[in-house]
Amino acid sequence: MTTTTRNGAIGLGFDERTGIATLTLRMEGKANKINDAFGEAFAEALPWAKARPGLKGIILASAHKDFCVGADIDMLYAARDPAAMYERVRALQTGYRALETCGVPVVAALTGSALGGGYELALSCHRRIAVDDPRIQVGLPEVMLGVIPGGGGTQRLPRLLGFQAAADIILQGKTVRAPKAKDLGLCDELCPDAAGVRAAAEQWIAANAGFQQPWDRAGYRFPPPAPGTADARDMLLVGSAMLYKKTAGAFLAPQYAISAMQEGCGLAFERGLEVEARYFARLATGDQAKDMIRTLWYHRTAAEKHQGLPGTDRQGIEKVGILGAGMMGGALGWVCAQAGYRVVLKDIRQPALDAAMAHCRKLTEERAKHLDAPAREALLGRIAPTLELGELRGCDLVIEAVFEDLNLKHTVTRETEPLLAPEGIWASNTSALPITRLAEASRHPERFIGMHFFSPVEQMPLLEIIMGKGTEEQTLARSLAFCRQIKKTPIVVNDGYAFYTTRVFSAYLMEGAQLVAEGHAPALVEWAARTAGMVIGPLQVFDEVTLTLVRKAMPQSEKFSGRKLDLAGFDLLVKMVDEHKRYGRAAGAGFYDYEGGRRQGIWPGLATLAAGKPAESGIELVGRRLLLAQAVEAVRALEDGVLVRKRDAEVGAIFGLGFAPNTGGPFSFLDRLGIPNAVALLRSYAEKYGPRCAPPALLVEMARKGERFFDAV
Ligand code: NAI
């Protein structure tokens, strides 16, 4: 006979025949989340199961698609009191601990993904059996949102797999698909379907009466190297050093995670949990986690869902033409083909087409491993390289990616636009030229739009969509439908020279050059950027995008934006390019020296181009100036009406140009600094470094009114 009871969030079932109690997570809404409702239900569920006469084992299951998606982010985001958070996490840990020490074998039936606190729940079970389906993922992605696992993950995973394997998952916030999870030991067994999982779970319970977690058994040995040994100390020391090299100390979560592992794993299990809870509570209630969650969770999700943007059920795009098979065009063609579009890749040079097709082949091998050979051939077969303009006839969308030259772009528009299908859309992948100016060559400015992709196109998640003055809403709606199909995250901005991302990006590069010109040590400039959270230092980025490109773009920027440049940094750039022929990485000489394409040290000659020693310098000052220069540019973009949605400032900067993710983005950075403080700092900078640093009127106004960009939590 089967008994079933409901206690709200968890369905309770007991099969007297097998002696197995099944606790089925079935929380309100679409997904199971770890929150108070879960905690209350769980606190009742376990005693209920234990009270069943003849209990032989417990299966944890889910009534939703996923097993459990982890912490309730709304709850996490709102929490500000470390003491209260500590108590909450301890209660969760105690619940999980009670499960793993309940005296009968417990199995997690992973018929869907188990992430974060959801995977920690599975880790508290004695066995994890998953459906053999790559759509099912498990892992601990907490550090991506600025927190660490708080449900015992930093204690159980190392005790199960060892420090190295656990650190690989926890410090990088990794999630892995079911087949790989089995290889790594994150799951114990795979079955073809849910019924198979159930049967395997019942069998395992029947065969493992009295099962205990390895760490609860007498004679347990930590997977070597064990905590406290010289080998473990060496490994953790190297791990910490590598982490520091990667994060420059700007990201607290991975640092706290390594500390929790290191300190907690040398202690008794229960004490280890306390160590984890302390680190978790401090992090989760702090500013960095709030800023990261706001942007990387809320804003990003809103952008991915196209919230507040027009939708359409008539995309009307099947055949896509790409004009220019260069660095951008080739990869763009592949991305479109992968999304199912027929693609015509047009260039004026056969070698460019050959190189682009070779690149597409390589991308297919590297990134479409899940496809069988015929499917890969079909993917490549959807891309037709050509020198013939006529092949573009009937395209529903043409993305123009020829050289960055207004006249050339006008010429190809005039030549090619008449070949478009009747409702066809023309998109330019320009990185800076105003769309409205480009559309002057078009007979249909209403169907002319900017689609600014980022390199490498197949990797970068962002697409900056730019509305020209004449672009119609329907064109935007169809472009957004296209964006969804190629799985990019959109930001939508208005026109203006360099739109949003390129503008902020240029501010970063030019502030870097400016600092060097003022005499700040170049190596300090690079490191200060990293310690402030920037993904790559400005001089290194400069070398990648080439100094020549920026050298050419800055006067264009003056012409189109009407804003005068008064930068010593620009003079330095001119000298680097015109006198010293230092063009960037590809040329083998830029801010850095290169040997055989490998970056060596900073070019020693750079010192001779600087203006002696600055009155004050240092990591903090330089890092702050680099972030402020970008944040101010973002404010100006909002002031000018280029930015329409504040969330786009954050999502665009982090995903498009590697703006410090630890800050949450340029506006979150200003909020955390305090708007009045930012205004005061900028005023002092204007006195010291020139009028270009003066605070924008919008910021001054916000300071006066006591406003912020985003609500405080
Ligand atoms: P590229 O120099 O690698 O490629 C340009 C290609 O256009 C060349 O293969 C050239 O043969 C071809 N081309 C020139 N005239 C043509 C014509 N009349 N018809 C057809 N093809 C023609 O340039 P890249 O880097 O791919 O840039 C292309 C555009 O994308 C530029 O507007 C650039 O500003 C923009 N962009 C570049 C990014 C980057 O990281 N490289 C990032 C975002 C945008």
Task: Describe the structure in your own words.
With 713 residues, the chain is an alpha/beta fold. It folds into 3 domains: 2-284, Alpha-Beta Complex (2-enoyl-CoA Hydratase, Chain A, domain 1); 319-493, Rossmann fold; 502-582 and 608-641 and 645-705, N-(1-d-carboxylethyl)-l-norvaline Dehydrogenase, domain 2, CATH 1.10.1040. Strand 11, helix 13 and strand 12 (342-346) form a beta-alpha-beta unit. Helix 5 (153-161) packs across helix 6. The radius of gyration is 28 Å and the shape is globular. The protein starts with a strand and ends in an 8-residue tail after the last helix. Bound molecules: 1,4-dihydronicotinamide adenine dinucleotide (NAI). The site of 1,4-dihydronicotinamide adenine dinucleotide has 25 residues, from helix 13 and helix 16. Residues 323-329, 346-349, 352, 401-404, 408, 412, 429-431, 452-455 line the site of 1,4-dihydronicotinamide adenine dinucleotide (NAI).
Q: How many domains make up the 3D coordinates?
A: 3
Arrangement of strands in the largest sheet: 13-12-11-14-15-16-17-18
Question: Structural class, judged by helices and strands?
Answer: alpha/beta
Helix content: 40-55%
**N-to-C span:** 51 Å
The CATH class of the largest domain is Alpha Beta
Note the overall shape: globular
Distinct ligands: 1,4-dihydronicotinamide adenine dinucleotide
Mean pLDDT: 96
Largest sheet composition:
8 strands, mixed
CATH fold title of the largest domain: 2-enoyl-CoA Hydratase, Chain A, domain 1
Q: What kind of oligomer do you see?
A: single chain
What's the name of the CATH homologous superfamily of the largest domain?
Answer: 2-enoyl-CoA Hydratase, Chain A, domain 1
Number of strands: 20
The assigned CATH architecture of the largest domain is Alpha-Beta Complex
How many helix segments? Answer: 28
Please mark out the parts with pLDDT under 50 across 5 or more consecutive residues, or reply none. Answer: none
Radius of gyration: 28 Å
Beta-strand portion reads 5-15%
